């Protein structure tokens, strides 16, 4: 193969003194690689111009080629013009995989060119290399620049060795295939281009296949030659000279009749003839190809028949005519012939049709055979005599002859070529439907798939098949569609691209807008708007490009106006892409910030005057949270903090609030300076007479006086209590002083009063405000029934008496300040109370403290340690409970009748719950296993809780009786639970389903006993205790995991609804395990390796139809299958079984068994083993049941005990020679048994006929 390189002379031009223009270039450099020890045959160089003004004495008779001393010869007669020279290198051997670097400079004496006065580089050079050797398809790789062959770092990369092949003959107007292969270096070297040197002769068509293996269609246009050049991405090339032939003289087309069996009345088809078409090569030479013509309709007559047809080649039709001579009809010949239009592919079927003249039905088909049944076999034969269609099963790649033979000895043969599927990379997929648009679904009707198949002689053709296309909806842009095509019984995946664009009238103008600063750990919103085009364009998906930075949350709003929540996860940027159902998209680069904990939060308080007793609101404060942006810069997020509801006091108030950013709550300190509020009672001094005249009564109390009564003689609505009467300070308002004075609206106390007596203001229904000031002791019922008090500040360190503020229905907000406890009923029936702020010092809430506060919605327990009985009973709007871990005790009925309560989470493992805490509620409860284990939910104690989610904190075992007799419908035991205790869920009659966590390794005895609504269970391994599922009368399916090693006794006895039992790993089944499971139909023991089955294990399972005894089973307990009246099939491994005894009553009263295979290993058939098996006619021991009405016994048996076959209907039995003992009534009431054969000496076994009164015993005498 010839490879050539040309160093172009496109360089700057230089001028001589006389203005002559020269076109110089640099030295020519050729780089290549030789493999497999190829020898360079010849190197030639042609020199246009060369001179060197500085080297007048250059020695040009011998020039080096790099470091190789190869002679350079110049012909003397060319020195005055262009110089021709050659390098003789026939003996130069290039080692395998070495690199060639030819850097050749030829120099001529400058005096030979008189007009040149300045230096120049070497002019244009061209080189041709003719490679010889055993690898003629490998050529050099051309690289620019000088390469040092001694430096391996300068060597070019290993070549891909492109190669072009074709076996097709291309005719003008037709096409053919060229195969291009190369080493693509794991996809690094790809096809760059394929061109034809003469597109008037041939053009390049479709290119299919994968990198490294491409099939190219070459279209022949007219006679001539064209070079097909393939260029790879690394610059390597390969060429193939395509010859396009012209059809010769149509009159020279020859037609040969190949079917020699044609007779009178037959029709000649294209399968019966071959047309040879002359072709003319560009050089005038000729060749002939054979094609299959189409033949016009005909019916042969005796004698000569002139037939016509058409040959199509190169896109042109050429008429043909030929003669067929047929002898006179022979009465004994049918003229049978075979034809088929099917393509036979390994793994599929095809049809051949045989037609013949039956001579009035006297000649019939006797057989059809295949000469090589490894290639194809004959399947079905259909049709009438004279016209049979044969289905052929194509099995393997190759050729076989299908021969039909008639009754008169005539035969017809059809050669079947079975193709095999070619390289799946060459499968071609063409999209036919050009009208597909955005939102359409591409189906199999829209594409054509051509699959390459290869004939036994190596010819590759393509067949069309209908593919299956995976569900898709075309979007804007490139769509990668996948599917599969089935051929030859194999399914091949296909993948192809379809590009669709959106028309202007379908564009919605989709926009995205974000105004939120989203912090990692929080979420924010993005708003998407678009024109729905009459509700036809809808949101399809919203995705995040980096889900480690941000994920998509909920989507709200209507079509055309959607708001999407985005969850920030960590600092960074993610691109949010929304896609509509028309394929339209919009993107938004969304930054996610992170809280910078290294910087201080900035607190700003509103510039306004605060007074004593006023409250600091959250809107009065702004906290600026420092954030780190994705680019590392700092920005600030302004937020209002959460502030405890506290009345400001005189002086400096330091308040700790919280602000939440990034899902984390941070404490912030707020400082407020407050001046003292004026108090008209402070400094109010009355003489004794003045006080009495004003309606006050009083007496001595401690070191001062207390008010004991007040007559509102002036009917005032606002009262200032004096600070001093006479010489004594007023220290207390006594019991009942203002009780039921309904006209009072305001009471102002001096700072000297620290105590308020029992019922002091009870029933003051007009009292709207009350300044508790310095009061630290408030008596029982002191303000009960004050229905208009709407705001109340509890003084610091105060003590509240029972029912102190009960019935204050206008009270909407309460802050407990520094109270440490709240007494019984203190705020009961405060129906207007909406907000409750429990101070940090509060540790105890007494019984009924907030009972019937019907507007209370949220409770945060803060530092509270105990909540008393009925403390929040009747709080019908309480919807949220936030229990702090300080809370360790909740009393009986504490949250009874809290109708709005739906979700409650308890995390403190030390929590102790009273009885019926949530009675009358509808709560979904999450609670630690430790709390459940206290038994607080057993019986009806869990009333009001519908679902319970048990969580693992420390404890992993559900304690004995923890939930016994509980009333819940749903219990979720968490992953991580390792054990379910004895009776732990026994008698839970409302549970319908239960999932045993995969981590559970032990289920205690009676764990689920009598859970009569439970329908299915799957054990997860380990041990399962006795009676674990006993009495679960609705349990339908029970699966024992492969790690459950034993099935305990009574485990599912009495489960009357149980239909399926699957045993995957147990080696033993306990006594009574499935006793009286009357609906059990299927027991699957698989490869579990069950070695023992206990007594009465399946007793009374009357619906069981089939049982397979594993070959590993060695013992089966007494009456194991007694009363299984539906049992019709018993499978035991006759030769591999290890069972040695059919135990007592094992199949007693199994009235459905008609035959049974008893293993050869069985030595004893026990007492009543088959007694009452009223259909058992064919017992077989160690073999298959007999075909007649008799039994057959194998030679391992030694003993048959009493009543073993009592009442069985068999009439014949063969007993083995090994038999030693038959007990007296072994065959009691076997009235049909007439013959007993024993291959032993007469009388050697006593007791004959052993209860079979109608039987004759035949001994071997």
Overall description:
The chain has 1261 residues and is mainly β. Among the domains are: 2-154, no CATH class; 163-246, Immunoglobulin-like, CATH 2.60.40; 248-326; 337-420, Immunoglobulin-like, CATH 2.60.40.1080; 425-500, no CATH class; 511-592, Sandwich (Immunoglobulin-like), CATH 2.60.40; 599-674; 1015-1104, no CATH class. The protein contains two helices and 99 strands. Strands 51, 52, 53, 55, 56, 58, 60 and 62 form an eight-stranded mixed sheet that branches. Strands 11, 13, 16, 17, 18, 19 and 20 form a seven-stranded mixed sheet that branches. The longest helix is centred in the middle third of the chain and has 6 residues, at 688-693. The radius of gyration is 52 Å and the shape is flat. It starts with a strand and ends with a strand. Residues 1-157 and 1183-1193 have low confidence and may be disordered.
